[in-house]
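User: Batch of two.

Assistant: Item 1 of 2:
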Amino acid sequence: MPNEAQLKELVKQKYSEIALQEKEVNQSSCCGAGGCSTEVYNIMSDDYTSLAGYNADADLGLGCGLPTQFARIKKGDVVIDLGSGAGNDCFIARNETGEDGRVIGIDFTPAMIEKAKANAQKLGYTNVEFRQGDIEHMPVSANMADVIVSNCVLNLVPNKDGVFKEIYRVLKPGGHFSISDVVLVGNLPEALRKDAEMYAGCVAGAIQKDVYMELIKVNGFSNITIQKEKPIVIPDDILSNYLNENELNNFKKGHTGIFSITVYAEKSKTCCGTDCCN
């Protein structure tokens, strides 16, 4: 299995390629990782097109939920999108926060930042900006955001605990997040977990659902709620690249599940020392 630095570089390379692909290519692949199935495999089965603020040029078909739909964004809010891609969730959030609000997208990949900035310029938005950075070390000040959203990104990050610590740092007291992500119930077959291509394809980087939820809790968040949950089905022609016939049958009959969840949680309104207030 690649180490953390190698995984990050893999993700950066893959999503640089994805930034240049058409949406239809991304939708028919493993979360954009490549054309790895003859079946349509788009784990983002939710439809963005009916949401106000939607912009087709910014929709790369890479998500696994609709976090902005559940994020309870109010007029004037400061919203940060983690792993902002070409800017789709940022533009929908901008519709919710209005001209008096502010939206910041953070992405690890320079090609995505370039694409998102071009989209914002075409739309004439002056209160939406994009910053290149690692979401384990966000290029923003503490206690800055009213709302944080993210769509199918934390599963790509090796140090998920570090990301939740950063989310807590960046949210204002009383702020909240709504994050869509991929989690597991039961153990993913080792052949799938070891494969770096599947890691960049959103599945092998997922962790157990109960571990994911516990990370949120131990990092100080409250009112933790699963807003939406849906199963993700990997087609047989993808699984057969990693599993023999017997392993594939056992996997499909087993108790292992891959799910997309959208999770909501809040940072306490009460100051708890320098980490909260300074």
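Item 2 of 2:
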Amino acid sequence: MKAIRLYEYGGPEVLRFEDLPTPMPEAGQALVRIEAAGVNFIDLNQRLGVGRPPTFPQPMGLEGAGVVEALGPSTDGVRVGERVAWQMLPGSYATHAALAADRLITLPDGVGTRTAAAATLQGLTAHCLTHTTYPIARGDSCLVHAAAGGVGLFVTQMAKMRGARVIATVSSEEKARAARAAGADEVIVHTQADFVKEVERLTGGRGVDVVYDGVGKDTFDKSFACLRPAGYMVFFGSASGPVGPFDLARLNPRSLTLARCNVAVLTAAHDDLLRRARDVFGWIAAGKLAVRIGKRYALRDAPAAHRDLASRATIGKLLLEPAG
């Protein structure tokens, strides 16, 4: 098999493309031939060593989709030949992986493996954000940062499905078009206007019910000024860098709530994983949820994919295709 592994922390150049023995699935595992792997900001943080011990080698990639080729002893839940997807399982930057069978999601008809690899982690994250961390109700208003990114496009669509008014922030006119196509009611190009002032204008000074922020350092502090009294600040990522220390006393004057969404926690239970996946893939199969793939790369070109994602100039999801 071919795989990308990490032997030191650093820039994209430390991603090593190498030949390895194809693993044999152990009890409870399925051997999957990977057809597409998602590239995510969490992968960039792993490559940089954020929050990780210096133990090497490390397999790369947490999300993918493919076809089950073999099963280990006493393995139930999937069958050889089934198309499956997964998230938060290491080793997805590869042509093959032996994965825990009870974490695999069988794909319905109408959802291809490429689409699934572009939708699993970010689609489930958006589901957790809009249905659990702050469950959007009809008539709510929300501010979605980085609305043309993978999660942002899904959050925008799901928020509209639940009857919300969506105000989106993006960095360019091209991204503004993508956000509008996803259903955003209002789009703020933050490189051209102050998003706090624009939210104040668009809401008549009331503020929004919830802010969904996966950007981090560049947007976090200013986002609190966009909330109505008793509003929710939902934080789920640090694309622009980590957020510094925060004084909880800042929440008090307007009785605000600060929440952190962790998709791994909210999909840890098998039933929760499958319930959310049924929604996401069901909406995709029915044409209710659009998946935008920004660019596809051969597995050996993982460093280029990391550079492009880090630039924050991409729209939609980046994929690695091991067969490419």
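The longest strand covers residues 29-39.
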